[in-house]
Amino acid sequence: MSALDAGAATSVRRSSTGRFIKRNPMLVLGILLLAIILMSAIFAPWLVGDPSAMMPNRRLLPAGLGYPLGTDPLGRDVFARTIYGARVSLTVGICVATISVLIGLALGLIAGYLRRADAPLMRIMDALMSIPAIMLAIALVALTQASVVTVIAAIAIPEIPRVVRLVRAVVFSVREQPFVQAAIAGGAKTPRVIIRHIMPSTLAPLIVQASYICASAILIEAALSFLGAGTPPSVPTWGNMIASNRLYLAKAPWTIFGPGLELALTVLAINLIGDGLRDHLDPRLSRRM
What is the largest CA-CA distance in the chain? Predict the structure, then answer.
């Protein structure tokens, strides 16, 4: 490729990137914000100190040069604990979204395409939807012990039926389309029809739904940790940080401000990504924009 062709290709890519940013500013903002939070969580050991290190002589210090968000009642660095708390919250959100989407996609395709399986599967999904995630988590913690795995399972189980219903509705509208009927008439077997002809139509709404599930899971995990039904107290999370420092709100508000702000920014970023993906992937909204 000549230098002229390479320059033209680079110019086209820059123009396409500029148009994408102009058409999806909220999506780009959400991606950038979430990328910053994600990178800070991944590289936390190199960015901050030990989040569990206690310094009794430095209790409840306000924000300063050595401590950007001050210290808590045990002399621990609030900024370090907030950064490490992102690891747990993002892990829970991503795992819950992945598990619920994968299981919900499989069950939704079966319920939507195989008429005989629809009624029994949907009755089971209705029963699961009636279980509040917080109550299920408290029950699981009582039966086992507090851990990240328990929290993920407790949040993912009630989210699966919502994904199943979404996929099932899409399958209902797609399975009668001419291209699906043509594949069936051509002798295509059921697995091939479902995977090759029907499942691609469910991916766009599933991507958007996964972003909302991730944001919801992060909020529920924070609520569970606040109630003491989430991860062990030794693991720094935004919820148990707010819970343990709530008595010092009037005297040392910075102990709650850090985790509360990062929780809000993380959920905001994921919701911006979800809204931006919905607008970008919906052809009707794209044409209108």
Answer: 78
E strands, 67-183, are none
Q: CA 170: distance to chain centroid?
A: 22
Which one, of 118, 102, 89, lies nearest residue 238 by Cα?
89
The CB density around residue 130, as the number of other CB atoms within 10 Å, is 9
Do 82 and 260 form a contact (C-beta atoms < 8 A)?
A: no
pTM of the complete model: 0.86
* Residue 113 and residue 172 in contact, taking contact as beta carbons nearer than 8 Å: no
| Residue pair 37/262 in contact by the 8 Å Cβ criterion | yes
Q: What is the CATH number of domain 23-52+70-288?
A: 1.10.3720.10
Q: pLDDT tens digits, residue range 207-238?
A: 889 999 999 999 988 988 888 777 777 788 89
DSSP 229-280: -SS-TTS--HHHHHHHHGGGTTT-THHHHHHHHHHHHHHHHHHHHHHHHHHH
Residues 249-264 have pLDDT tens digits of 888 888 899 899 999 9
Domain residue ranges of the chain, discontinuous segments joined by +: 23-52+70-288
- CA 120 from chain center: how many Å? 29
**Which residue matches tokens 């110019």?**
11
Q: Retrieve residue 285's tokens.
A: 């909204």
DSSP annotation of 73 reads T
